[in-house]
Design brief:
Chains A, B: InterPro entries: YcjX-like (IPR007413). Two copies of one chain form a homodimer. By secondary structure, chain A is an alpha/beta fold. Helix content of chain A is 42%, strand content 15%.
Chain lengths: 469, 469
């Protein structure tokens, strides 16, 4: 083999070995702003050189990011992420937040950059990174723990949750009464199951609308092809503890218990497992978006619900202790970003409090996670900055930071939005005072004005920086 | 082995060998009445003994059918056929035709009967047949021929079809102009493809609404999880014949041709093939419902469209000549019923004409099919009889048969609906005269009145009779 041929072979081999492709997964708890985040990410990378808005992204700061173009997605059966529609929404008069996506979607970018590392430079002046951004509902991630639960455990977990969340318990009241009246071991009436499942599903819809994040089983509220199929017609049984383990074990195949158990297993095998096999196991990086301000507004129970939901989500990234995941799917996510969105809805001096509140809520699970292989970052973020910050002088001469922006009714507001608590306040706090963080509309922009952000570059540096070195 | 043990073994083996399970597939061209048919089928079997309405079904006539109950479906991920909702529609005041189903659905019945054959009688006084009825869109069946077409062939077939159907061509005009302006070999713009695919899909929706049956690719109008995905964004290319085979063969991977070809193949492999593998290949019997009167009303082009569509459909059952199917999926459908629905919308003396018209339209493909292993029956059918037949005496003393029923506006009509032509009239006929078969509402019934039908028992005898012997 001649030297030049050897050199060529080496180069081919090195190119393959290098990180030329990255699958970035984006998910979030209900209404946390996934669509705004992905649109802003694509926008900022595509408008980088004109606007110099990403100083904390090293490759950009050093002027090494040369271009970003959209490319064809590899999996043709996944809906395309509606980037153009989202941008149109931001540049409308008046602007509005884009329609939330439903289910999974994808958008692909090709980033050309001048490499810094000697190995990559050896391969050429210009390198490229294929970035595949996958957007999926937080509920699908929340379904992951089902894979290691049997029907009895899941039933108990769900009932425990309802018993600790009085508002959710109240929403579920009609269903609860209906299901408690049934004999778990008697032959089941399919029609009755369908009715109760419809009530349970309705209860999940209402809970989501009321701002709760703990929505499980997640596919119940996004049925797609399975609307009206038995796979989406089961529910937990509150009365299971009235029966002995032996009674349950000997339940007849046509009993209510056996039928629900069969459907629960079917759901795991036909909906949850394929998602993890076909998608989750192929993600390289994950960002989870969380709207803490919305939870604070909604009250003590919603914050507890966020806490529990995030605790559950974190389990999906604990490969060390939970090696059943590794056995099943060999997941490879090595960086996990928790972004507290809409940080422009409070003044910037509140950023540390936002982080601290989340860290306090997740103290135990974070402790466990730190011993694992996953790198974790928690940060505030405003994908599309909706407010301006200014200093107000009060009548007594004191100065205070304030925000200026449009509320959803289009009125201009200038005010101090208040402080974020550093830890979970007691339930009393909401009875006497509570929180009222305003929800802002997107900023009104001319076509040539850029979308602004807060700390998007910090997020990008964490998620992509090492791949663009 | 003792004699009784041997007897037991033999019985088990025989039971397995006997036809204890039958998957009956129901499909139809647009609005042919699938929902009414399945509801009526279940209704008639479940109310058999009270009403004695099935004299042509041998097992019923001989009093050997003992009972029929609904059972759990084996595939939990398929939506349940909405039988209860359909019955509620028929027994409403005023009654209405049930909502059409969308996509696939299933309902299962267990039929208990006294066997007649000595072999089954040896096995017991009472035998049972598990009947699984699967309802799926005619468009899915129409997609089958794609499996043996490549993109170029499909493109030519689709363009030929449009050129022979001026109304369809007119509906597709905007799309056609847009696509003809493109260079097939130039790099494709994904955004442009998406726009043209949206126009093509819109054209399919309009065609279906206008009563055309030839809707292909069928998933375009029922996107389910794939709305907005590239798999549903392709279309035929009218300008292909301007290019040489070599030019096409050498098309670059990012050219319009290559991209559309890739998506076409993806569609076949990810949507068409799974349907045939998971469903079609497991059907035992098939009924195809056709509304010929609606086609006659709509004009010469719609009748031609029905003819072409049925000709294509018939190919799916020609295992003999087309053994690619047998190789791929080993389909096992051995009886195929073409039912000309709404036969109660004409007088009963027109039944032979209905059959003859269909036979004339399908002369060639039927000729081919008769040499194959599939048994075929063509018959008129009214799943839910909406009219009464009576004899009117005209002013000149002559007598004529007539129909009495409610039209969709709720008015009572009594009239002679006219004759069905025995063969396809010439286009002129529609210009001078045409057809105006009235669309009737379901009959108004009290709760204790039975749903009536026409020749449902004949259909059941063909589809199930031998399995209940």
């Amino acid at each position: 083999m001649s030297w030049s041929k050897f050199e060529y072979q080496l180069q081919t081999w090195l190119e393959r070995g290098l990180d030329q492709r990255l699958r970035l997964a984006v998910t979030g708890l209900s209404r946390a702003g996934k669509t705004a985040f992905i649109s802003a990410l694509v926008y900022q990378l595509r408008h980088l050189n004109a606007q110099q808005q990403l100083p904390l992204l090293q490759v950009a700061r050093e002027g090494r990011l040369l271009g970003c173009k959209r490319t064809h997605q590899p999996d043709l059966s996944i809906p395309r992420f509606p980037y153009d529609q989202a941008l149109a929404a931001f540049y409308s008069q008046p602007p509005y937040w884009p329609q939330p996506t439903n289910g999974i979607s994808e958008i692909c970018l090709n980033l050309r950059y001048r490499p810094q590392t000697s190995l990559k430079r050896y391969l050429g002046e210009v390198a490229s990174l294929q970035l595949e951004i996958v957007d999926y509902p937080g509920e699908w991630l929340l379904d992951l723990p089902l894979l290691e639960q049997d029907f009895i455990t899941w039933s108990q977990t769900s009932i425990d949750y309802l018993q600790h969340h009085p508002q959710r318990r109240a929403l579920a009241q009609t269903w609860w009464q209906g299901v408690e009246a049934l004999d778990v071991l008697a032959p089941a009436d399919e029609h009755k199951i369908a009715q109760l499942a419809a009530l349970y599903t309705e209860n999940l819809h209402q809970s989501k609308a009321a701002g709760f994040a703990w929505i499980q089983p997640g596919r119940f509220i996004m049925p797609a092809d399975h609307a009206g199929a038995p796979i989406l017609e089961f529910f937990p049984l509150p009365q299971l503890d009235k029966y002995s383990a032996e009674q349950i074990h000997q339940a007849a195949p046509d009993s209510l218990f056996a039928l629900l158990q069969q459907r629960f297993e079917y759901y795991k095998n036909h909906l949850v497992r394929p998602f993890y096999k076909e998608h989750f196991s192929r993600f390289d990086r994950q960002i989870v978006l969380i709207d803490l301000l919305q939870a604070l507004n909604a009250g003590h129970e919603k914050v507890l619900d966020t806490q529990m939901t995030l605790t559950q989500l974190l389990q999906s990234f604990r490969y060390g202790q939970r090696d059943f995941l590794r056995r099943l799917f060999a997941p490879r996510i090595d960086r996990l970003l928790f972004a507290i969105t809409k940080s422009d809805h409070v003044t910037r001096d509140q950023d540390p409090a936002l982080c601290q509140l989340l860290q306090n809520l997740l103290q135990d699970p974070l402790q466990d996670l730190r011993t694992d292989a996953v790198q974790l970052q928690i940060q505030p973020l405003a994908s599309v900055r909706a407010t301006q910050e200014l200093i107000l002088e009060l009548s007594d001469g004191q100065k205070t930071p304030a925000l200026k922006g449009h509320n959803l009714q289009g009125e201009v507001l200038t005010f101090y939005p208040g402080e974020v608590p550093k830890s979970l306040p007691s339930p009393d706090f909401w009875q006497t005072q509570g929180f009222e963080f305003v929800h802002f509309a997107p900023p009104s922009l001319h076509q040539e004005q850029a979308l602004a952000h807060l700390r998007m570059d910090e997020a990008l540096e964490f998620l992509l920086g090492d791949k663009l070195a």
